[in-house]
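User: I've been trying to design a sequence by hand for this structure and keep getting stuck. Would you show me what you'd pick, starting by listing the structure so we're on the same page?

Assistant: Good idea, let's start from the same input. This is the structure you sent:
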């Protein structure tokens, strides 16, 4: 496994391996969710590149860019174990040099959900992901379903801009007690870690109500919200039932309906989601 820091060197490597690369873009502080992406990447290409870059342009001014957890040494061990060939760790000054002024924006899909509560977030995500695709030139890139909207936005960008690669979405990986794995979980104290279980419990409660025959979004939202509101440390940012393709709001739910949540637990904002028909 090699570590590449410079954009020029990464591009040189990518030229030599054109058509053979699977890319796993991350912001580091790797967990089993990331590992599942790397293991799948290993099956899909001769060369696996993992990028680790805490992308400043996708964080708002009052967000957690500075406190976002980082541990490159540990990440290297996880990557090596998962069979990664190259870790690409660019510097912010190399990705966004003086005078930088070009942005990629997906217009409609980013108006909802996280796009509404984090203005500018998806412009930063799509820009950095487009840059990574240009630098690494992968034939396939893998992302987790936990960031459901991010995945939908990236798929749209790839389609709209005729980017020549396959996008693969992988299932959410959960702790034994149901908490969706996230690098931000490391910032929860013990009490908050317990409170954070309200996200997966809220999803389970809505799924159970749906399985019991309830299809009114208003009624299902009441069931899901009650679980979060019972938790003192938790504050709902959004809880929405959406069409999983257009992300438009719905009044009646079916098996394919997406339930997406963003909840603040203490100072940490967590997201989770499920499809109502999911077992
Ligand atoms: O999901 C993430 O970790 C980031 O948003 C991504 C896709 C690596 C872009 O910075």
């Amino acid at each position: 496994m090699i570590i590449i820091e410079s954009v020029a060197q990464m591009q040189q490597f990518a030229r030599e391996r054109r058509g053979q690369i699977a890319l796993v873009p991350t912001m580091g502080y790797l967990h089993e969710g990331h590992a599942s992406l790397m293991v799948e990447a290993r099956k899909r290409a001769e060369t696996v590149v993992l990028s680790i870059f805490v992308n400043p342009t996708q964080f708002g001014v009052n967000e957690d860019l500075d406190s976002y957890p980082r541990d490159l040494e540990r990440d290297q061990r996880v990557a090596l174990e998962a069979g990664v060939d190259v870790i690409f760790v660019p510097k912010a000054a190399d990705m966004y040099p003086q005078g930088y002024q070009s942005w990629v924006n997906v217009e409609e899909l980013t108006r909802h959900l996280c796009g509404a509560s984090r203005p500018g977030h998806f412009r930063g995500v799509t820009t950095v992901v487009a840059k990574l695709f240009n630098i690494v030139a992968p034939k396939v890139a893998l992302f987790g379903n936990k960031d459901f909207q991010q995945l939908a936005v990236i798929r749209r960008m790839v389609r709209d801009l005729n980017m020549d690669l396959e996008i693969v979405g992988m299932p959410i990986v959960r702790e034994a007690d149901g908490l969706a794995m996230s690098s931000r979980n490391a910032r929860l104290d013990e009490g908050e870690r317990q409170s954070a279980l309200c996200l997966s419990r809220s999803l389970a409660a809505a799924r159970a109500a749906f399985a019991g025959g309830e299809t009114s979004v208003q009624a299902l939202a009441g069931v899901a919200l009650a679980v979060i509101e019972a938790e003192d440390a938790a504050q709902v940012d959004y809880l929405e039932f959406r069409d999983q393709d257009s992300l438009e709001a719905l009044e009646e739910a079916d098996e394919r309906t997406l339930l997406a949540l963003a909840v603040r637990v203490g100072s940490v904002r967590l997201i989770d989601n499920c499809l109502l028909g999911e077992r």
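That's my pick for every position. To get oriented when you compare it with your attempt: The chain has two domains: 2-170, 183-273. The mean pLDDT is 97.
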